[in-house]
Amino acid sequence: MIGTRHETSLHRELKFSYAGQGGRTEAEVAGFVADGISASGEFIEVQTGSFKPLRQKAGELASRGRLRIVYPVVVAKYIEVFDSGGKRQYRRKSPRRGSAWDLFDALVYAPDLPLTRGLTVELALVDAVERRVKDGKGSWRRRGISIQDRSLLAFHESVVLKKPSDYLRFAPFKKKEQFTSSLLSERAGIPVDLARKTLYVLSRIGVVKKKGKKGNSILYYISV
pTM (2 decimals)? Predict the structure, then answer.
């Protein structure tokens, strides 16, 4: 089917879930293929990586109706490793835990996207299982083990972002408080690099603005 050749089970499961009963998937619209269209006519896009490829597509779809971009955040990942014959060797839990802040690793490549009229970004916080196979074809970092698939294990909750002011949840400061990326990093418990990406996106959509510098650090304040 169109657009499904390299689709993971996680992507497929979310696509069908959000399209819902009475909806349809893999629909051709204006030269693009939408992941789904719900029964109410809302376009559905499930995006597991950078938002950069969606910049033109999102504009086209949103100009023809409401658009919901679903971004899965894997809160907990379980890794299952199989031998080449399909027998499971072991299962372990990855030490990395995802959070809603992961959105900005993807959104930084399309920072103006939240300004698109009719667009909703929804974070789907999930647990997932990653299937790996010892086939000798994978990355040297994984000693030749290939990642074969990723599937949905559990759905925790969703975070819905319909308008720029909804992104205030990512600026945990008081109205007149001035802050830097380092302070955001400390307060949110995220790496400084991710804090910088977050503030870059928030400034592009008008949620925060720059107000001079403190040493070598840019000062920001909430502007909505």
Answer: 0.91
